[in-house]
Amino acid sequence: MKEVLRFENVSMHYHSMQGETVALENVNFAVSEGEFVAIIGPSGCGKTTLLSLAAGLLPPTKGKVATSGVSFGYMLQKDELFPWRTIEKNIFLPLEIKRADTPQNRARALALAEKYGLKQFLKNYPASLSGGMRQRAALIRTLAVDPDVLLLDEPFSALDYQTRLSVCDDVYKIIRTEKKTALLITHDISEAISVADKIFVLSKRPASVVASHALSFPESEPLKRRENKDFSRWFEVLWKELNV
């Protein structure tokens, strides 16, 4: 498979009046086209910094981030929908920002909204939707500009547990149906196992990759994976690696 993202000996140092903070140190990993990759690590280890580097929002202090000319869509921890815009207008926002607000692109975005159950809510404002529906709208907004790779920054962490399971299943199915590559960062081991083809484990800060695993489940849907007998075995392996 074609590589779409590669980190080569990437380090990231932040400087302030208090001194230097090393967030990442010699990080190496690659993501191939069509993969759903999860990166797990302890809180504060630099996972969000890693996504910012992947998206080109920050240059690395050392090393190289190679992206093969692909485009990225970024999905945040919270839906960040503008409360004064309808769901329809929130979905159109990336088209406006990228100066791609054409009838053709609007039609494609609306087709996605209809396909994934948002048609009847397009004229609603975000406050009238559940947290799960708002997060689905946020994903459709991200997909509106047809990115090659989705960067997912703990996108379910703001939801309650039951909603989180359901929305994770929804988002996974949408990403797979649209044949997108995805890079998810999370501190939730179960979440990573339930969606990923491949998992990279980060150490405490300064973070580096301490383990990588290719997962193979006969079930594809996250909720069904959680019922598989191998799920608990993978959880134990990853738990130990995170707590070395």
Structure description:
This protein has about 240 residues and is α/β, with parallel strands linked by helices. It has two domains: about 1-70 and about 150-160 and about 180-244, Rossmann fold, CATH 3.40.50; about 70-145, no CATH class. It is about 35% helix and about 25% strand. The chain contains eight helices and nine strands. It has helices at about 45-55, 85-95, 105-115, 130-145, 160-175, 190-195, 220-225, 230-240; strands spanning about 5-15, 20-30, 35-40, 60-65, 70-75, 150-155, 180-185, 200, 210-215. The chain has a six-stranded mixed β-sheet with strand order 5-6-7-3-8-9, with helices on both faces. A three-stranded antiparallel β-sheet has the order 2-1-4. Strand 1 (about 5-15) and strand 2 form a beta hairpin. The longest helix is centred in the C-terminal third of the chain and has 17 residues, at about 160-175. It is globular, with a radius of gyration of 18 Å. It starts with a strand and ends with a helix. About 35% of the residues are buried. The mean pLDDT is about 90.
Question: Would you kindly provide a brief summary of this structure?
Answer:
This protein has 244 residues and is α/β, with parallel strands linked by helices.
Mean pLDDT: 91
The CATH homologous superfamily of the largest domain: P-loop containing nucleotide triphosphate hydrolases
What is the class of the largest domain in the CATH system?
Answer: Alpha Beta
User: What Rg do the Cα atoms give?
Assistant: 18 Å
Distance between the termini: 32 Å
Count every beta strand, where a strand is a DSSP E run of 2 or more residues: 9
β-strand amount: 25-35%
Overall tally of structural domains: 2
The number of helical elements comes to 8
Class per helix and strand makeup: alpha/beta
The share of residues in helices is: 25-40%
